[in-house]
Design a protein that fits this description.
Layout: H1 3-32, H2 36-55, H3 65-90, H4 95-102, H5 105-116, H6 123-143, H7 153-172, H8 174-177, H9 182-197, H10 201-206, H11 217-244, H12 247-252, H13 256-267, H14 275-293, H15 297-307
Helix pairs in contact: 1-11, 1-13, 2-3, 2-9, 2-11, 3-7, 3-9, 4-7, 5-7, 6-13, 6-14, 9-11
């Protein structure tokens, strides 16, 4: 494994650890302080501001009109639709249903990458995705009870579309990430995603459920973590990972999130450790290993030809 690939693995693993910690923090914020829609606006505005400020201190990339349009496209699918549809769908379905449906994202990435990016679906990769999804689902159901599910078909479809938008970004954006720095990519993508949200901003902020509690130091610290850590840092790391990794391999790390969330929940007393969680974690990391070690047949053939 090359240094570039190792760097990519470290980036996406770190991003999913931050996302995993973000999940219980966001649940606390949504329960005590503000709505999901308002939290999404804060993430958009905050990250946009930080990325544009950060761009002052790095060398400016020359971005042509074609790439600006691509950044608008991936800002729509990778950020605006991803976050907007997920928050909307979560309000229409149950957290259990949402967690289950999200496990389909690596499968969608694998299919899209095979169709449009010449990243073939190998048997090893397929088994790895299946094992990872099984482990993630086991974690979900070891923490939640299926009888508590109150999801609707419409809400489930919206969550599925959110996962599809993420899959499109992961699968198709690698050529763009190879031409520009992560800061340049993100500052434009987040700017466009914030613009896409402008028509909905007045209704989000004027809703009676927009702010539901007194904003205190806990809320401020939670918001700082969500905006600076779980948005700015994670999207920066994801862009760095996309440049260095195959799409399906990167998407497999999504299965690490419920494992990290479970560890955080156990640490703060919201959940307890069980043998089921341990076995599920083994499946998740086993699946990640299989996909990571899967060899592209074309690359393998080229390597053999060079040796010959």
């Amino acid at each position: 494994m090359t240094k570039e690939r190792i760097h990519g693995h470290l980036c996406i693993f770190a991003a999913n650890i931050i996302f995993g910690i973000y999940i219980p923090i966001s649940k606390y914020m949504l329960t005590n302080f503000l709505s999901g829609e308002v939290l999404t606006l804060f993430r958009m505005w905050g990250a946009t501001a930080i990325f544009w400020i950060a761009s002052i201190f790095v060398r400016e990339d020359k971005v042509d009109k074609k790439d600006i349009l691509l950044m608008m496209f991936f800002g729509l699918f990778g950020i605006a639709l991803n976050q907007g549809l997920f928050i909307c769908g979560l309000g229409m379905t149950s957290p259990v249903d949402a967690s289950v449906i999200v496990t389909a994202t690596p499968l969608m990435v694998m299919v899209i990458a095979a169709l449009f990016m010449s990243d073939p679906i190998t048997r090893r990769k397929g088994v790895g995705v299946f094992l990872g999804a099984s482990g993630a689902l086991w974690l979900v159901f070891s923490t939640n009870h299926i009888q508590n599910s109150t999801g609707t078909f419409g809400g489930d479809v919206v969550i599925l579309l959110s996962g599809l938008s993420t899959a499109i970004y992961y699968s198709l954006s690698k050529p763009l990430t190879s031409r520009h720095s992560p800061i340049t990519l993100m500052k434009w993508m987040f700017l466009f995603s914030s613009i896409f949200f402008l028509p909905f901003t007045p209704s989000f902020l004027s809703s009676p459920k927009a702010f539901i509690g007194e904003f205190n130091i806990e809320a401020a610290l939670g918001l700082i973590y969500i905006v600076a850590g779980a948005t700015f840092v994670t999207y920066l790391l994801i862009a760095m990972a996309i440049k260095r990794m195959r799409p399906t391999t990167m998407a497999m790390y999504n299965y690490v999130q419920p494992f990290i969330s479970s560890l955080v929940a156990v640490a703060v007393g919201q959940d307890s450790f069980s043998i089921e969680k341990c076995c599920a974690a083994v499946l998740v990391f086993g699946g990640v290993y299989l996909v990571t070690s899967s060899v592209n047949p074309l690359q393998s053939q080229n390597a053999d030809n060079k040796k010959a």
